[in-house]
Amino acid sequence: MTTVELTRFRVLPEKTEELLAARADMVKDFEADRAGFLGARLVRLPDNEWLDIVDWATPENFAASREKGANLPGIARFFAAIDALVIAEEGVSEA
């Protein structure tokens, strides 16, 4: 089992390219700085909304990552492109 972070957010249309350009650096920063980071998928939804699906080895890894916030430049750039948080949830992958 792994911990799954589900974050749905809005991005203004004029910031979409900025978000996508920052994505690779955000993932690199997570790989370098976040223990237990297993990978991430970004899904474009209707109405300028996005879903970020991030897999963590344990709930403790996810909690530690949340405490760090946007502590590295790639992560900060990605977060800065987000206009509004819709919902953030945590679950467990059974498969």
From TrEMBL:
The record lists the organism as Kribbella shirazensis
Q: Which residues form the ABM domain?
A: 6-67
Keyword annotations for this protein, in alphabetical order, are: Monooxygenase, Oxidoreductase
The protein's matches in InterPro entries, at most eight in alphabetical order, are given as: ABM_dom, Dimeric_a/b-barrel
What top-level branch of life does the organism fall under? Bacteria
Provide the organism lineage as a comma list. Answer: Bacteria, Bacillati, Actinomycetota, Actinomycetes, Propionibacteriales
For this UniProt entry, the molecular function terms from Gene Ontology, in alphabetical order, are:
monooxygenase activity
Protein known as: Quinol monooxygenase YgiN
